Amino acid sequence: MVRRPLEADRSPADSSALHRTRAQSARSDSDTISPSQFTPSSTRSRSDSASLPGTLDFDPDVPIPSIEREPDEASSLSTHNSSSARARTPSFSITPPATEGMTTPIPPSGTSHGTSPTPSYTVLSPATRTGLELSERAAGSSSRSDSLPGAGRHHSQSFPTTSVAGQHSTRSPVDSVTVSHGIGNIRLGSPVDSVTHGMGNIRFDTEDTRPGTPTPRTYLHPRSPSPNISIDGAHRSIRSTSRRRSGSYVDPTPHNVAEEEPPRERFHEPEFQREFTTAKNLVNDLVNVLASSSLHNEAQSRIRALYLQAVDLSRFQKPSARIVALVGDGEVGKSSLLNSLLDFEGFARSGSSGKACTCVATEYHYHENDDFAIEIEYFTLDELRDQLTELLQSYRHYYLRPAQENDKPEGEQNDLEKRAEVAQDTFQAAFCNHLAHNERFLLDNSEATVLRTLLTWTRATGLPIRETPGAGPEREFFNEANQCSDRLIKLTSESTSPNEASIWPFIRKIKVYLNAYILSKGLILADLPGLRDVNSARLKITERYLLNCDEIFVVCRIGRAITDASVMGVIELARRASLSRIGIVCTRSEEIQADEAQRDFGGDAPTTIKRLKDKIKQMQESLKATEREISDFSIDSDTEAEIDEEESKELVRLHNAAKKILQTNDCENLRLKTFLMTTRNEKVTADLRTAHQSHIPGGNLPVFCVSNRDYWEHRRNPKEEAMPLLHLSGILQLRRYCLSVVAESQLQAALDYMFDAIPALLGSVELWVQSGAGSLSAERKQAIRDTIEEIEKALDTVSCLASPVNANARSMEQQFNTHIARSMRQYSNDWSEAAYNVTIEWHGWSHGKQSPFPFIFSGEHSPCDHVQTFKFLSGTYAAFCRKYGDHSTKATVRPRCWNQEAIQAMVDQLATPWRTFRQNLQASQDNLLNTIDDCFDCAIALSDSTDATARSMRTLTMTMRHRQALLIAAVENLEDGFQSDLSVLRTDAFSGIRSSFIGQLMESAYNRTIQESGTGSDSRRKKIIGDAFGDDQLFERHRRQFRSRFSALAGGLQDKIQAAIATHLAAVQTDLDTLRNENVALESERHPEFRNRVEDAVRNIRQEMEGVYAVASRFRAPTT
């Protein structure tokens, strides 16, 4: 994998390609203060009122003021011009009746968006209230913001949100809420949106009131006159502007993924990040200095070469990417989980068709651009031929079976039918235009004829399908996220047109490139089909992919996590393939009912749930009583001509009490939701670890319970109110864990960057500066040239034909032949005999062997029972064949693997030779590193022995030491990768999984048994399996595959090491040429001012780096 640059200082704004905006208040041209704050007309001059624009867009976080009207002055609003003013929450002022003849205007009950900030308040009558609904709105309504304790209030301001297409849609944070009695229908989708939400529509309508008479509706309206003021002609109380309550301003900015808490790894410690950033900035400074002369544009200039090196170093090449795979069955929420981790809503989507869709392995890679790209890797024609053959045989075997085959055991019938359905779906998807009216073609012709025709249709698709693996795929680019998402749906799902062929049957893998924060740190996220895929080609792709992943998460629903078959399948694969980095992600953690939890939870949990429910019920009853008082007050007031000041105060008190009850109710519902989810999460986590942790090498099983619904319902809300529920969703914790996967490799790469790469570059630049100093005599220059020639000869020993580097692959192959291949040749016949004997045991009753079903032969059963048991055994044997030897029965605790049992004699006998072989390989790799070290040490010693007074030679010595360290680090990384590849090879050689050597060698035999039917089919199956495992060439073919794969690995390692050596020796050679080449010296001499600038810059950077080293050196050794 190519390592991409780490951009630790990348702007948080780049963390998503989707542009996000937030609404801002409209203002006059002269207004420069944000956020805006409103003041009543009574506190402003007439000139200020006159400048008010005609239409106002109100900021949702500023107060709605009270308005007092005078007989000769119309009320108006304007923005406050004081920069020290702070935002207020809405306040309500209620004023007694105006003087005779004056009518207080009543604002209209309806509020249109963007024209009036006045909310409409309504209290529903008791008859219409049937239940408290504390959940998300019905489908089709806009998602709403949820209120949290201490969070800000929502107002009737519409906010733009960004869809996956990048287009803005409008949502209002204020929705109506139904307030009712009881808590029987509590659903834990989200708490009530805000404190003001519940009272958001209080409105009293009165009838038969005379014109100009204030009503309770007037007093409850935010624009109503204040009851605390006596309007007597021109006299007004100054308290009108001092009685408004102020509230805290809520920043509407949503959560920024780039600001999330980093993993608790050394690389992410603030101290280290500070010094790392300083080092990168210093390199950028050097780039600017080198670019300050026109020399950096001259092709043959040494400065140009140094400038390009500095530019490349300034980008900091990240270590090779780490792969985190998500594997699981369909409909468990993998696509939603990917969207949450990527922080791209609706990007990865499942198709609308349920037939064989989303079965393509899809990788998500990082790129710096804001656009999107897709790469498609197609199967070769040979691979498609094998797949079509298997599918065609499954289809024909089921539909052309004889009538007597219908009485097969139910399990066998279901398996055959499922395989036939998968084959039919695949054929219809790939060739619907050919088979739409002629599906009998697949059955009426010979298998060979049908297969030739299918391959002809494949070639005619127009897709870039090659006979054998060829050139890499081309990229498709998209400007918008929705365009890329639509293309992915088209590639991975059924076609929406009945006459248009689908593409997915021909695709091996898809790569998607996007600018997502989690990918920017060197991660690749992979979406894989489950291990229970009936299509064996897809299953093997998933299995092979998982063997090379750095972290594997099996995804399942939380409600069935303990018994989920996909979880058990991945755990079993981990056990057999020695995979230690396995985790489980349980989705839909928000789906839990309080009543059910109260019955199911143990310990003190039921008591806590009951207490919280009772408290919520009590608050609802209090709210109901308060509403009745308000309603009664309304009825009483309607019979009076006017309302007095005491009644106004009481009405305000009741209103405030209702708001406080709603706020407390929100808090308690959130507390109940949190308790239910965290308690269930902890229980499921403990149960999963108890069930599976002991079967995983290393004994570590991370478990995460997540809610994608909660994450996206609150993701765009103001950060202050959203964070508790974002944390509760579990997505932030999972994203942090994924980032930790790459943290250790990032640390080592950053240390190499600071301690060796930067000093090596500075040394090369300094050599250019010193070459133009002109202070050396001709004799001393000649002495330096002679030393340089000796240094070159010393370094040539590491790359010459006789070097151990060039014999590394041959040496490793000789060790393989000595320890592994020789033993395999010697004992292959013994292993074939042992494998055959194992197949006899699978018969269950032959040759007096111990049956895996011992109850069959007990005296407790009649002969009739034995006949039924033999039928059972026959069906079980066929089931093992259909599952390629990997199956489980009620008599087995865990799945049995025939392949593993058949090769166990070989595995046991090669265990010790394999350990010895690995130890010898490690010793060889150590010797190779010592050889490289010795060559550099010799060259450095020659440099040290030359005229010690020459600054250039001292600089060369230091620079070569840094080049030596960089080369050793590069070779060590290559050897680490080789060891990982060797572990995968061990799994292929010594395990019985489907994609292993033995699994591939036995696949054709299993396929033949699957095609068997009719009388005597059971005996024929057993003969096929016995002959295949007993074949004296089986382990010989196994040995050849084993040796071929190891030779390829050894040769690949040697090629990579040779390339690394050549790269770093070329850098050293360039430094040597800088000292020896007169043209470089002349270049330096001709630009004295530029040379002085460069010299000063290098000196200053070295001084700054001393401070970096002082801190970063503490991170070089692992902490205890």
From TrEMBL:
Biased composition (Basic residues): 236-246
Boundaries of every DUF7605 domain copy: 827-1035
UniProt feature, compositional bias: Low complexity: 41-51, 75-84, 109-120
Chain coiled-coil ranges: 609-636
UniProt keyword Calcium present: no
Polar residues: compositionally biased ranges: 23-40, 157-179
Keyword Coiled coil tagged: yes
Region feature Disordered, mapped onto this chain: 1-268
Domain Dynamin N-terminal: 324-584
Keywords of the record: Coiled coil
Biased composition (Basic and acidic residues): 1-12, 257-268
PANTHER family hit by this protein: NUCLEAR GTPASE, GERMINAL CENTER-ASSOCIATED, TANDEM DUPLICATE 3
Listed name of the protein: G domain-containing protein
